[in-house]
Write a structure and sequence with these properties.
Length: 299
């Protein structure tokens, strides 16, 4: 029988307890993890959203530039989500309007030696790999510029939802470097090599509508909706699906670009078969028969 892995050391705070501080609690964090409902007005909270976690970037003064500390705190948050069996969806977002992530903290970068820069990049790449490896769906909520490392951060998520302020760019060649945290690889897998080359060669910024047309954004919220409200709608749609089904679907889809078709189909069949003996599958059939919403437990 397939079940979600037991995630040892899970720490879930009730919404009333607020943030998980991921660094020195005596100073404001650059990033923190909390239940989504902790940041929602009472009118928008619901039981189904209790399983959604928020990984929040909070450096308004730098437009969420990726400092070494922020990357470390993001990694800690991702590790906590990975260890939390009750988490069903992760939202990556910020409380600040018209902001997403401006990329690497260039002021900090000026003080760093080449070896320190290399260590930072290793940590950033590891963080994105850990984000990408989460078994639950992940959503980047982009309502401002996602530049350089900020764009790469969004590419580490399963879905990207943009708002009216969404801007994406890979401008590293203008600084004498190249995208170093997966931008050349994840973007090319998403939209193809030719389009990725054009974005990297020119470094130009693209708005939400163009990003949606190119397939970088899954959704672009249009007034009066916002990226965050569209993300909430998407979360509500996702959490009604069986968590085991989502986990194995993600595994199959993520493997697809690397496998010949026949091998991919074999993997798909193996993953399908792994669900046949689960309680959630039986619950889905019973709910269909009873004409009610299924209550999936992840086992």
């Amino acid at each position: 029988m397939l079940s979600l892995p037991v995630r040892r050391g899970a720490v879930r705070l009730p919404a009333r307890l607020g943030r998980h501080h991921l660094h020195n609690p005596s100073s404001p964090p650059h990033a923190y993890l909390q239940p989504l409902i902790a940041s929602l007005p009472a009118s928008e909270t619901s039981e189904e959203l209790e399983s959604v976690m928020s990984l929040i970037m909070d450096r308004k003064e730098t437009r969420n530039a990726l400092s070494g500390r922020m990357v470390a705190e993001l990694r800690e948050g991702i590790a906590k989500v990975s260890a939390d069996r009750s988490a069903r969806v992760l939202l990556l977002h910020t409380p600040h309007p018209n902001v997403f992530c401006s990329g690497a903290d260039l002021r900090e970068r000026l003080t760093m030696s080449p070896s320190a820069v290399s260590s930072f990049l290793t940590s950033l790449r590891s963080m994105l790999a850990e984000l990408e490896a989460l078994s639950i769906p992940t959503i980047a909520v982009i309502d401002g510029p996602g530049l350089g490392g900020g764009c790469e951060l969004s590419l580490g998520c399963d879905l990207r939802i943009g708002g009216s302020g969404a801007i994406l760019a890979l401008p590293e060649a203008k600084l004498g470097i190249v995208p170093g945290a997966g931008g050349t690889q994840r973007m090319a897998k998403l939209i193809g090599g030719a389009r990725t080359k054009e974005l990297v060669y020119t470094g130009r910024r693209i708005g939400g509508e163009e990003a949606e047309r190119m397939g970088i954004l899954n959704f672009l919220a249009r007034s009066p909706e916002t990226a965050f409200s569209q993300a909430l709608l998407t979360c509500r749609q996702i959490v009604t699906s069986a968590p085991l089904s989502l986990a194995v679907a993600k595994k199959a889809i993520d493997a697809a670009p690397y496998l010949p078709l026949e091998e991919g189909l074999t993997l798909e069949r193996e993953l399908y078969d792994s669900l046949l003996g689960t309680e959630d599958r039986m619950e889905g059939l019973k709910a269909f028969k009873d004409k009610r919403r299924a209550k999936f437990l992840g086992r």
